[in-house]
Specification:
single chain; Pnp Oxidase, Chain A; two-stranded antiparallel ribbon
Length: 177
């Protein structure tokens, strides 16, 4: 493995360093009253099991951050490796609403959040924002999990690593499945 020194004050070097951290990929959706909004999010993490809470991090000033800055209910779909194209659709700048992006993709509307939820992921969560924190160039949304529309018994996660979606070798079953 080749290592190179990096300037810690460089945002490019810092972004490269963070890109070396593999992370799961999610789809965050919210019903905005006027439209359904969605975005691909890889900065997602569990916060608490009791009560069940999660955190999503959105680019401050983006339309999804603006919407989640005022809307409390949203959904998170943990994407499966086969949903790479779907993640790409929701990551494109200037993208249309979530209904158009989910055209031809099995999905349903969450009973608690009203948000569109893509089927076929590893799990889906319906959430209610409980706290918002401005953090540098991002908005952190901490949310209580209201429900789990589904949890797949097995599957391979969609992973983001160094700006790409590499495949894992094999699917992994749930611990309790």
């Amino acid at each position: 493995m080749t290592k190179r020194p990096a300037d810690s004050s460089s945002t490019t070097a810092f972004a490269d360093a963070l890109g070396a951290f593999a992370t799961g990929v999610t789809l965050v959706t919210v019903a905005d009253g006027r439209d359904d909004i969605g975005t691909t999010v890889s900065a997602f993490c569990p916060v608490s099991l009791d009560p069940p809470m999660v955190l999503v991090s959105l680019i401050a000033g983006s339309y999804p951050a603006e919407v989640l800055g005022r809307a409390d209910l949203f959904a998170v779909t943990l994407l499966e490796a086969g949903q790479r194209a779907l993640a790409g659709r929701f990551a494109v700048a200037g993208r249309p609403g979530a209904r158009l992006l989910l055209d031809g993709v099995p999905h349903h509307r969450g009973a608690m959040s009203g948000a569109l939820i893509a089927d076929g992921g590893l799990a889906a969560l319906e959430c209610e924002a409980s706290q918002r924190v401005a953090a540098g160039d991002h908005l952190l949304v901490i949310a209580r999990v209201l429900g789990l529309p589904y949890v797949a018994e097995s599957g391979a996660p969609l992973i983001r690593y160094r700006g790409r979606y590499p495949a894992l070798d094999s699917p992994v079953a749930t611990r309790h499945g």
